[in-house]
Amino acid sequence: MKIKQVEELVGITRKNIRFYEEQGLLNVARAENGYREYHQADVDRLMEIKLFRKMDISIEEMKALFEKKKSLQICLEQHLKELEHRKEGLSKMQDICERLILEHRSLDSLNAEDCLEEIEQMEKEGAKFMDINKMDVHKKKRNGAIIGAAVMILLMLITIVIVFWANTQDPIPLGMLLLIAGIPAVIIVGTLVALAGRMKEIEGGEEDEASKY
């Protein structure tokens, strides 16, 4: 069957199906013409992936499960412990919020250092709080996309400058000049459009998209 049929059967977008293939969770056979050919086994695997993602089981855990490095029983037991830690962390966060409200804390009277020390102690005891390092991943991706686009645009601008400088040394017919200078200009526009699309993907969370159906 074709990917459109799979989308309808499983309720997962084409983009997410491709994402799972890239992550090695799904191995789709190809027909003689080179196109992907999905079978019932692929549909069943996608159903499993969808279920596990709904349960917030990570890509890494699913890989280990599908590669027979872990049994489903062990995977679920470990995930249950993780959920219990998260639940405890949420409960602790709620306690901190309620206490700060009852103490009528303002931003000026808030002692962030004391609160952080309290949270760090709870983390040592097993509670799970927000991992700020994970939040920095999007920032790194944004910076990488911007730097890559900036380098490409700079190269194209230099190309345009060189073209016009060369024209002052040895005049080029106007039509040819516009054509030569227009190519890097078009590339600049394309780069900006691609950057805008990339930023939108990053802000939405390209990996996070795989958990949205």
Task: Please tag this protein with its features.
213 residues, mainly alpha, Multidrug-efflux Transporter Regulator, Chain: A, Domain 2, 3 domains, two-stranded antiparallel ribbon, 8 helices, flat, MerR_fam, transmembrane, transmembrane helix
What would you say about this model in short?
This protein is mostly helical and 213 residues long. The chain contains eight helices and two strands, in the order ααββαααααα.
Can you tell me the residue ranges where pLDDT is under 50 for at least 5 consecutive residues? 209-213
Mean pLDDT: 85
Molecular shape: flat
Work out the helicity level: over 70%
- Tell me the domain tally: 3
- How many β-strand runs? 2
Proportion in β-strands: under 5%
Structural class: mainly alpha
Distance between the termini: 20 Å
Q: Encode the helix/strand succession as letters.
A: HHEEHHHHHH
Physical arrangement of strands within the biggest beta sheet: 1-2
Largest sheet: 2 strands, antiparallel
Provide the gyration radius in Å.
Answer: 26 Å
InterPro entries: DNA-bd_dom_put_sf (IPR009061), MerR-type_HTH_dom (IPR000551), MerR_fam (IPR047057)
GO molecular function, one term: DNA-binding transcription factor activity
Keywords: DNA-binding, Membrane, Transcription, Transcription regulation, Transmembrane, Transmembrane helix
